[in-house]
C-alpha cells in the first residue's frame, strides 16, 4: 500500500488511493479519530495497542460486525467509543487490493443516541464513501439487526453455495427463521428496538410475527445478495479461502450468553456455533449435509406444538 497505494476494485468504484500504512508496532503519534476494522475476536488486542495513540479527546469508531462497542467502551470508556453499522460487501484480494462488491446500508451513532458535533463529522466523512449513510440515534438497533442477519450469514457459510442461493433454498427456511427469532427475542429482552436494512426485516422475526412475513424477508435477502460481486460472506471466506478461525465466538456465541441471562433459549444458535467450530477444526466439511444438521435442530424448534 505504501508503494502502490490502496487499489479499490470491482463494479461499484475502481480507483487507487495513496495511503500511509503502518503495522501496529510501527505506528507513531496520537490521533483523534480511529476507525477500527479488525475481526471481532481481535478487538481487545487492537484497542489495547491503539490506546496509547489515542488523543485525550480522541475516539474509536467500530466499523465491525458484532457488539464490539461493548468491548471497546469497557477498555477506553463510553465517551471515547462511537457505534457504527456496515453492511456493504468487501473482500481482501491480495496485499493492497480490495474488492468493493456492493453498496449497502451504513449507519453511525453515539452509543447514547445524542447527536454530537463529532458524530456529525464522522457521518459527513462516511457519506463521501456511502452517500446514503445514516446518522442514527439508535445504533444498537442497527447492531442487533445485523446480529440477526449475521447469524443467518454464518448459517450460509456452512455450505459452499453463495449467500443468495442459501437464502433461496426453501427447504432451509426453518434455519433462517429460527436464528432470526432467537436473536430478535434476545434484542427485545435487552430493551433494544432492532432496525431493518437491505431485506432484513426485524419485525418479521419478532415473537408472534407470521411465518409469511419471515418468508418474505428471507426472499428479500436472497434477492439483495443476488446483485453483489461479493457472493459469499466474510465467514465463508474465513473458512474456505483464508483457512482461519471465524468471528463465531465473539459475534454469535455471545448472543447465546446474553439470551441465557435474559431467560431465552437459543438451541439454533448453540448448534450453529458448534457446527462452525466443527468446520474450523476440520471435523466437518462446508456442505449442505452440515447445514442439514442445523436444519434438524431448527425444524424441531419452529414446528408448532401439537
Ligand atoms: N468484509 C466485509 O464485507 C464486511 C466486514 N464486516 C466486518 O468488518 C470487520 C473487519 O472485516 P474485514 O475487513 O472483512 O476483515 P479482514 O480480515 O479482511 O481485515 C482485518 C484486518 O485486521 C488486521 N488485524 C488483526 N488484528 C490486528 C491488530 N491487533 N492490530 C491491527 N490490525 C489487526 C488483520 O491483519 P492480518 O490479516 O495480518 O491478520 C486484517 O488485515 C469484521 O468485524 C467483519 O465482520 C462488516 C460488513 C462487511
Ligand atoms: C455479507 C456481508 C458483507 C454483509 O452483507 C457481511 O457482513 C460479511 O461478509 O460478514
Secondary structure blueprint with pairings:
Elements: E1 6-9, E2 15-17, E3 31-36, H1 43-50, E4 54-62, H2 68-76, E5 81-86, E6 89-94, E7 97-102, E8 106-110, H3 117-129, E9 134-135, H4 139-156, H5 163-167, H6 173-189, H7 211-225, H8 234-240, H9 248-261, H10 267-280, H11 288-302
Parallel strand pairs: 1-7, 3-4, 4-5, 8-9
Antiparallel strand pairs: 1-2, 5-8, 6-7
Helix pairs in contact: 1-2, 4-6, 4-9, 6-9, 6-11, 9-10, 10-11
Bound molecules: NADPH dihydro-nicotinamide-adenine-dinucleotide phosphate and ketopantoate.
Summarize the structure.
This protein has helices spanning 43-50, 68-76, 117-129, 139-156, 163-167, 173-189, 211-225, 234-240, 248-261, 267-280, 288-302, and strands at residues 6-9, 15-17, 31-36, 54-62, 81-86, 89-94, 97-102, 106-110, 134-135. It has 306 residues and is α/β, with parallel strands linked by helices.
CATH superfamily of the largest domain: N-(1-d-carboxylethyl)-l-norvaline Dehydrogenase, domain 2
What gap, in angstroms, lies between the N and C termini?
61 Å
Q: Which bin fits the share of residues in helices? A: 40-55%
Q: How are strands sequenced across the largest beta sheet?
A: 3-4-5-8-9
Average pLDDT, to the nearest integer? 97
Which fold does the CATH topology of the largest domain refer to? N-(1-d-carboxylethyl)-l-norvaline Dehydrogenase, domain 2
Molecular shape: globular
Strand content: 15-25%
- Number of distinct helices: 11
How many DSSP E strands? Answer: 9
Tell me about the largest β-sheet. 5 strands, mixed
Amino acid at each position: 500500500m505504501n508503494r502502490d497505494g490502496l487499489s479499490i476494485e470491482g463494479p461499484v468504484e475502481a480507483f487507487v488511493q495513496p495511503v500511509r500504512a503502518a503495522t501496529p508496532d510501527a505506528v507513531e503519534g496520537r490521533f483523534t479519530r480511529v476507525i477500527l476494522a479488525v475481526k471481532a475476536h481481535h478487538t481487545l488486542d487492537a484497542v489495547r495497542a491503539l490506546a496509547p495513540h489515542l488523543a485525550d479527546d480522541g475516539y474509536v469508531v467500530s466499523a465491525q460486525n458484532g457488539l464490539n462497542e461493548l468491548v471497546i467502551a469497557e477498555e477506553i470508556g463510553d465517551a471515547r467509543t462511537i457505534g457504527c453499522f456496515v453492511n456493504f460487501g468487501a473482500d481482501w484480494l491480495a496485499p493492497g487490493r480490495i474488492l468493493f462488491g456492493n453498496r449497502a446500508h451504513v449507519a453511525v451513532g453515539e452509543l447514547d443516541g445524542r447527536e454530537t458535533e463529532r458524530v456529525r463529522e464522522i457521518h459527513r466523512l462516511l457519506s463521501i464513501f456511502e452517500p446514503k449513510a445514516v446518522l442514527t440515534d439508535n445504533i444498537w438497533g442497527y447492531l442487533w439487526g445485523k446480529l440477526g442477519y449475521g447469524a443467518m450469514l454464518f448459517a450460509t457459510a456452512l455450505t459452499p453455495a453463495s449467500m443468495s442461493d442459501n437464502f433461496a433454498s426453501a427447504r432451509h427456511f426453518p434455519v433462517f427463521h429460527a436464528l432470526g427469532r432467537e436473536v430478535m427475542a434476545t434484542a427485545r429482552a435487552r430493551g433494544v428496538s432492532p432496525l431493518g436494512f437491505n431485506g432484513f426485516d426485524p419485525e418479521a422475526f419478532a415473537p408472534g410475527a407470521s411465518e409469511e412475513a419471515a418468508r418474505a424477508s428471507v426472499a428479500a435477502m436472497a434477492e439483495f445478495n443476488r446483485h453483489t460481486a461479493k457472493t459469499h460472506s466474510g465467514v465463508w471466506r474465513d473458512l474456505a479461502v483464508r483457512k482461519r478461525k471465524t468471528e463465531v465466538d465473539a459475534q454469535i456465541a455471545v448472543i447465546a450468553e446474553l439470551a441465557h441471562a435474559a431467560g431465552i433459549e437459543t438451541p439454533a444458535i448453540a448448534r450453529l456455533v458448534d457446527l462452525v467450530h466443527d468446520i474450523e477444526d476440520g471435523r466437518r466439511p462446508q456442505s449442505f449435509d452440515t447445514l442439514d444438521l442445523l436444519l434438524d435442530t431448527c425444524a424441531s424448534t419452529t414446528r408448532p406444538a401439537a
